[in-house]
Design goal:
This protein is of the alpha/beta class. 26% of the residues lie in helices and 21% in strands. The protein has ten helices and eleven strands. α1 crosses α4 and α3 packs across α4. The longest helix is centred in the N-terminal third of the chain and has 14 residues. 33% of the residues are buried.
C-alpha cells in the first residue's frame, strides 16, 4: 500500500487540476483517482467541475487520497491543494491557478518557460515549481496533453507506482482505441522523464496563499436593467488564445489570392479584410491578416486555402501571435 507523504487536518492528500475543455483533464483526474485506489491501495475520490462541454471552457478536476481506514465524506472543491497541475500556461492570464496553495505545495505547469520565470509570473515566494512541455510531447506523439501531465504528476507523486498507471492507460484505451495504447504510454514515459523542478524554500512563518473563489461581477443587485448581456460570446472582450493546443496558422501575404476560402470555414471570424483597389482600379476586398485573439487553432483555414497562403506552425513563447495580430475594425474603434 502506498504511504502518503503529508495530509491535511482531515487526513486527505489533495490534488487540483486546472484546465480547459479539450485537453483531457477530466479523464486524467478519473484515471489518477482510479489508479490510486485500484493500483496503489489508497482510499480516494475524483470529480470534476465544468460548464458547457466544449473546447476552451474552464475545467477543474479534484482528487483526494487518504489511508484505507479514513472515510471520505467530503466532495467539496479543493481549496488548499498539496499539488496543482496546470494544463495550459495561458490559464495564468485569467485565473489564479495557485490560489490556496501551501508554502510547500508543488505546482506543475505545461509550459516552455523555466521554473523561475513561472514563479515570477505567478508571484510565488516558496514551494516547488515543476515544468513539462506537454504540448510539444503530445504533438510529437500524436496524443493529448493529459497523459503527458499524468507522467509528470507521477514523478511528483512518488508514492504512486507509475507501472500501475500504465496498466490503467491500457484498460482505458484498449477496448475502443487499441491503437492509442502504445502512443499514450510513450507520452506518459516522456512526461515522467522530461519534467524539470525548482524548489524555493519557504520563509519561516509563511502562511498559505489565500484562496479566491470566483464570483461574477454582476449579480441580482448589480445587473443592468433588463438583464442586458454585456459580454456575449462574440464580444471583443473574449480571448480564445487559451484554446490553442500548440498550433496556429501563419499568413503569407505574398501567396494570398483573396479568395476568402479561409473566412468561409473559420468558426470564429478571425480574418480581417480591407477594401482597396485592384490592378484595374476596381474596389475589392483584400485579406489584411488574422486577429489571433479569437483564433483557437482549429486550422480549418489551412486545410481550405488552395494556394498555401496559410500554413500550420508551432506556437512558441516568442510572442508571434501578439506581434502579428491584426485587430478587427471595431476593436480599433473601441480603443479610440
Amino acid at each position: 500500500m502506498a504511504k502518503l507523504p503529508k495530509v491535511n487536518e482531515l487526513g486527505f492528500f489533495e490534488i487540483r487540476l486546472e484546465s480547459i475543455g479539450g485537453l483531457g483533464a477530466n479523464l486524467a483526474g478519473k484515471m489518477l483517482s482510479e489508479d490510486g485506489v485500484v493500483g496503489n491501495g489508497l482510499n480516494g475520490v475524483g470529480f470534476s467541475s465544468y460548464g458547457s462541454e466544449k473546447k476552451g471552457s474552464p475545467v477543474k478536476a479534484y482528487i483526494r487520497f487518504c489511508d484505507p481506514v479514513t472515510h471520505i465524506r467530503d466532495t467539496t472543491p479543493i481549496e488548499r491543494p498539496h499539488v496543482v497541475g496546470i494544463f495550459h500556461e495561458a490559464l495564468l492570464k485569467t485565473t489564479d491557478c495557485a490560489s490556496g496553495i501551501y508554502p510547500d505545495s508543488t505546482i506543475l505547469v505545461n509550459s516552455q518557460r523555466s521554473p523561475d520565470e513561472l514563479r515570477q509570473l505567478m508571484k510565488i515566494d516558496s514551494g516547488t515549481i515543476a515544468v513539462v512541455n506537454a504540448t510539444e510531447i503530445a504533438l510529437e506523439e500524436q496524443t493529448k496533453v493529459n497523459t503527458t501531465m499524468l507522467g509528470a504528476l507521477y514523478r511528483i507523486l512518488d508514492f504512486l507506482d507509475p507501472d500501475s498507471m500504465k496498466d490503467t492507460i491500457r484498460r482505458t484505451f484498449e477496448k475502443k482505441y487499441p491503437h492509442f495504447v502504445e502512443p499514450n504510454i510513450r507520452t506518459f514515459d516522456r512526461g515522467f522523464d522530461e519534467i524539470e523542478f525548482m524548489t524555493f524554500e519557504p520563509v519561516e512563518g509563511t502562511a498559505p496563499r489565500p484562496f479566491k473563489r470566483f464570483e461574477p461581477a454582476l449579480g441580482y443587485q448589480t445587473q443592468p436593467i433588463g438583464g442586458t448581456i454585456t459580454n456575449p460570446g462574440n464580444s471583443i472582450l473574449k480571448d480564445l488564445s487559451i484554446s490553442r493546443a500548440g498550433m496556429l496558422p501563419h499568413f503569407h501575404d505574398d501567396k494570398c489570392i483573396n479568395c476568402a476560402a479561409c473566412d468561409t470555414v473559420c468558426p470564429d471570424f478571425c480574418f480581417v479584410w480591407e477594401e482597396k483597389e485592384d490592378k484595374r482600379g476596381r474596389p475589392q476586398m483584400f485579406l489584411k491578416g488574422i486577429d489571433y485573439q479569437y483564433c483557437k487553432g482549429c486550422l480549418k483555414c489551412v486545410q481550405a486555402c488552395p494556394v498555401e497562403a496559410l500554413t500550420d506552425e508551432r506556437e512558441y513563447n516568442d510572442g508571434y501571435a501578439d506581434k502579428n495580430r491584426v485587430p478587427h475594425l471595431f476593436d480599433l474603434m473601441s480603443q479610440n
